[in-house]
Amino acid sequence: MKQFSIFILKIAAVLILTMGLLDVLYTTVYLQSNSRNKIAYLYNSKDLNYDVVFLGSSRVNNHFVPKIFNDRGYKSYNFGITRSRLEESALMLKLMVERHYKIKNLILQVDLNINTNDHSEAIRSLFMPYLHRSQIIRDHYKNIPEYNQLMYIPFYRYMHYDARVGFREMYYSLVHKRTNVLDNDGFHALTSNPGKMVPADLSKYYPKRNVAYEEIKAICKKNHINLIAVTTPMCMSTINRDYFNHIQEIYPEIHRFENAVTDDKYFATCGHMNKAGAEAFTQIIFNAFFKPR
Question: Which residues neighbour 283 within 8 Å (Cβ) at sequence distance 6 or greater?
Answer without folding.
Answer: 68
